[in-house]
Amino acid sequence: MGIPEDTAEHLAELGNMGLTKATWSNYRTAERMLERCRRDTGERMELPLKQEQVLLFIDWLSRKRKAKHGTICSYLAGIRQLQIARGMGEGKIRSDLVNLVLAGKRNKDVQEKKKGRKGRLPVTKAVMKLIKATLRKSSMSLERKRLVWAVCCLTFAGAFRIHEILAREERRFDPKWTLLNRDLKVVQDKEGKATMLVTVKWPKEDKVGKEIEVEVLESRTETCPVRAWRKWQQCTGRRKPDQPAFRLEDGRAFTGRKFNTILKRLLEDHIDYSQGSISAHSFRSGVTTELGRKGCTDEQLKEVGRWSSRAYEHYLKLPRTTRKSVARKIRRL
Q1: I need a surface site. Which of 41, 79, 160, 330 has the fewest CB within 10 A?
Q2: Are residues 164 and 43 in the same domain?
Q3: pTM of the prediction?
Q4: CA-CA distance, 287 to 281, in Å (whole number)?
Q5: Distance (Å, rounded) from C-alpha 46 to C-alpha 221?
Q6: Cα–Cα distance for residue pair 290/214, rounded to 1 Å
């Protein structure tokens, strides 16, 4: 581009950091997919691609690879980036005709998803009792049972998104995103009432990425999150502050996927999954369903579930009398 060499090196470094490792990996996969398309179709797929080649690539990805709209767009972005990296310019990857075809592919994917979609059932008090009953009869170890029940109770009482408290992967984790032992505390007030303080990393409702501390009050019921957590802690060894808060017996992190697998195994003989499914996200809708039945206002429900963009600020600033009122409603569930 005719710019100074040191400037070019600095800009190149910034540009490379503008994309995540996962994105670069997708771009490399796009190149491999293009080569497979060339072998399968016998068509020339030389860079830079022309409109006809792009359309052939989309057809092959959609029909042969069963790729969805988002995946196809990611591959096309990879091809575009590949052309730029090889000094060919970005070219006309996304022509008007290509965009029209992609829009149709997106609409078709949505229609197909709706056809097979099953509604999500809320985890109500009755479902919580069912989970506890099936856990008791389960062949899982006592520590695993208490771990699962502790996650159920905390997710239910706090209306958490599952990956706000569980890791995404078993063998590795990012401390910036994962709830660690140091991020979960139980404190007691002068009256002897316990409160769990859960530090949520990068909450969905906060686009800036500011951590928030969510208070979950002790309910002293059979679904009390404090009691369930303490019972699980009795089965575990010493907790390291910088390790995931919820871990399996062998030290691997307890993931949302593993939790969903266990839930389905526990409930599949009791819930008709053809009519609706129960997953980790069902707890989030379940507690609000129950609280709504108990007369909580819309504003209180939003605050408990942090559903509006800045709702958590109001939740944290609720006077203690209001938080006790909500806790009493949970206690009576």
Answers
A1: 41
A2: no
A3: 0.59
A4: 11
A5: 66
A6: 20
